Amino acid sequence: MHDAQFCGLLGASVCSRCAESRDVMLPMTPFEKIVKKADAGRISKEALEEIREIVQERAEAISEQAVRISRHAGRKTVMKEDIEFVIGAKK
Predict the structure, then answer these.
(1) Residues 6+ positions from 55 with CB-CB distance below 8 Å
(2) Alpha carbon distance 50, 77 (integer Å)
(3) Which of 36, 45, 47, 73 stands the most exposed, by the fewest C-beta atoms within 10 Å?
(4) Does residue 12 have a pLDDT over 50?
(5) Which pTM does this prediction carry?
(6) What gap in Å lies between CA 63 and CA 79, rounded to an integer?
């Protein structure tokens, strides 16, 4: 049986099943909407792809750190406070 949570705790040495699941990219539409909301006018496909890649990488890094924090606290559930701690949010 595959234990993705255990593989996530291994850090750099993840199994191929976990590595494959990380290759999934977020859809482009939300990023197009964000750029339109910023009143950018026109934006190239390459620029949108770069924004998507940066946001996804940052979200994955925050998530990985939040999971480690929740495990350290003895929880299986990542809480809002874990995310806030990772990004250094002020209350």
Answers:
(1) 26, 31
(2) 31
(3) 45
(4) no
(5) 0.67
(6) 11
